[in-house]
Amino acid sequence: EAAVPAILRCLDEQDERVASEALHIATNRLPLSAEVAKALMALASNPKQPQDRRHHALLALADQKPAPAPVISLLVSELDAEDYQVRIEVVRALAGSPDGAVEAAKALLRKVQSCASDWQLRSQTLELIEILQDALTAETVAALSAHPSSGQWAERELVPLVSDPSGPCDRDVRSSAATLLGIMAPNVSVAKLAPLIRDPDQEIRRAAILGLCEVPTDAAIPVFLDVVEHAPMDVRSDVVDFFFADRKTVWMHQPKE
Question: What is the number of H-type helices and E-type strands within the chain?
Answer without folding.
Answer: 16, 0
